[in-house]
Structures are given as C-alpha cells and as structure tokens.
Amino acid sequence: MLKLDDVTKEFRIGAFGGKSVAAVRNVSFEVVPGEVVSLIGESGSGKSTIGRMILGLNPVTRGSITFDGLPVRAGKEYYRHIQGIFQDPFSSFNPVFKADRVFAMIKDTYYPDVAEAEWARRVAVALRDVRLNPDQVLGKYPHQLSGGQLQRLLIARALLLDIRLLVADEITSMLDASTRIDVLNLLAELKARGLAVLYITHDLSLGNYLAERTVVLRGGRVVEMGPTERVFGDPLHPYTRELLSAVPRLHEPWDDAAPVDTCPYHERGGSGGLVEAEPGHHVACAELQRCLRP
Ligand SMILES: Nc1ncnc2c1ncn2[C@@H]1O[C@H](COP(=O)(O)OP(=O)(O)OP(=O)(O)O)[C@@H](O)[C@H]1O
C-alpha cells in the first residue's frame, strides 16, 4: 500500500537558501493495509517531515513515496484515502467555523450528490463511531470543544472518506492521560476495521501500545526497524537501547563519534545502511553516522 523507497529530504536554509540540511536520509519502509507502524525518535529526527511528505505537504528531494504503486499526488482523490491528524487539533480547524461546517465541506468536495438527510445520518454514524454525541458537538465552535473532542472530530471526518491510511503525528501529546488512552483505544478499533495508521510519536510506550511494527529514527536515518515486540524486546542498535532504557542522559545528544567496540553490522549495510539481523528486523551499523562523515 504505502511504500517509501530510499527517501531523502533536504531543506534549503540560510539567507539565500544557499545551504541545505538533510532532515530525512535514505529512508525505506512500507505500511500494509490494516497495519499500525509507529515512527519513533527524538525531537528533530525527521518524523514529522516523513509524515508531511507522505501527505504531499513537502516534496521528496530524492527517492520515492508511492501509494498503491502511484506517486504521492496531493489532491482530492489522494486525500480520499490518506488523511493526516496533527498534534494541535485547534490548528486544524478554522476558528470561525462550527463543527457542522467541517463535515459540510467534506460533503461539498467528495459527495455533492448525497442527499442532506443521508449525509446527516452518515455524520451521526461517524461521530458515534468515535464516541461523540452529535448533539453535543455539532453547532459548536472549536474553542467550545476540548482537545480530545477535536481529535475525535478529525478522526470522524476521516472516517467519512474512504480512508485507508491515517498519518497520526503526535496526536495524543496535548491530551491528558485518560483522554490519551481513549484516543489510542479508538485508533486500535480503527485498526481492527482494517485502517492502516502511521503513528508518529516520541513516546515509546504509546508506540508500543499500538503498533505491529516500529521504525526508529535518528538524525533522519532509520537505525532500527522491525516487529514491535522484537525492537522493544531485543533492541539491537545502541541508540534504540538508549531510548528504551530512558536513562536521565536521554536529553543529551547521542555522541555520533563515540566508538562502538563491536558493532556486528559494521560494513554490512545495504541501502540506507540497514542489515536484516533476523527476519523483518533491520538494524543500522552503530557506527554508520561516523562512517558516513566526510
Ligand atoms: N521547513 C523546514 N526548513 C528547514 N528545516 C526544517 C524544516 N522542517 C524541518 N526542518 C528540520 O528538519 C529536521 C527534522 O524535523 P522534523 O520536524 O521532521 O523532526 P521531528 O522528529 O518530527 O521532531 P519533533 O518531534 O520535535 O516534531 C529538524 O532538524 C528540523 O529543524
């Protein structure tokens, strides 16, 4: 379904765009129908940039992203199947539109021929699916709704489309603990219905809760990926181990140049520097960043 193949994203920076920074480097992974893949890594590791490229909000510099074999093509038909939800639900709503208007815009764009009564029925079903009471949310402005209600509204909006992949970027980080679990359980239900989710988070425990597969990013590169229980249960890369051990040093930058005595994957990396250590479980050479330095 979704395939990233050797994807690199460079941003032009500097006064005249004369320099560039590589936010994502040689990233390859797939998301298959009905699968939850979590993308984890520290701040600045390139998670959101990957999400934005998948959503067609940032162009790819090199490599390719395809959905059902076709390149990303931002537009009405693409967004019928792929939707993104972001950290701050308030930013996704126009503050002067009531919730009804959000759904009316979906109808106008995608289902202009559906009768009003039928549309109202579909909206009510979608809202109940995300455990919202239509009477309590329709007719309200965004500021009259909680963060959790707004995230659910966005998921309901996605459900009204023929959605197959949801890119969920830190969607629970602004929610309180109990609302966060509610939203995660909701995503688990959607997964049970066959929806695929790319779950972007820096919170390892949340990724672990939902995802069949985990991709660990550092400095724009995949350092490890595989079945979640293997990546969490038997992390192979020192960076993954450091993330999982949650030692207080976590806020300190990982030392690229620190020698790693015995990296068994050294000099064995293929595309993106990854080695398949066991079926489906890939890891980068722990010295890769150092090796690739000019
Ligand atoms: N539009 C941009 N122009 C220049 N650099 C950018 C741009 N967007 C992102 N970057 C840089 O790309 C890198 C990756 O950013 P990104 O937002 O993808 O990281 P992230 O892992 O999602 O971080 P966070 O968890 O803090 O959201 C960072 O160094 C960031 O500064």
Q: Residue-averaged pLDDT, rounded? A: 83
Q: What is the annotated CATH architecture?
A: 3-Layer(aba) Sandwich
Unreliable spans: 247-251
Largest sheet: 8 strands, mixed
Task: Please report the distance between the alpha carbons of the first and last residues.
Answer: 36 Å
Keywords: ATP-binding, Nucleotide-binding, Transport
Protein name: ABC transporter ATP-binding protein
InterPro entries: AAA+_ATPase (IPR003593), ABC_transporter-like_ATP-bd (IPR003439), ABC_transporter-like_CS (IPR017871), Oligopep_ABC_C (IPR013563), P-loop_NTPase (IPR027417)
Organism: Nonomuraea purpurea
Report on this model:
It contains eleven helices and twelve strands. It has helices at 47-54, 76-81, 99-110, 116-129, 134-137, 147-160, 177-192, 204-210, 228-233, 238-245, 288-292; strands spanning 2-13, 19-31, 36-40, 62-67, 70-71, 82-85, 165-169, 196-201, 213-218, 221-227, 274-278, 281-284. It is globular, with a radius of gyration of 20 Å. The protein is α/β, with parallel strands linked by helices. The strands form two sheets. The protein has an eight-stranded mixed β-sheet, with helices on both faces. It has a four-stranded antiparallel β-sheet with strand order 2-1-4-5, covered by helices on one side. The protein has a single domain, classed as Rossmann fold, CATH 3.40.50. Helix 4 packs across helix 6. Adenosine-5'-triphosphate (ATP) is lined by residues 11, 13, 21, 23, 41, 43-49, 202.
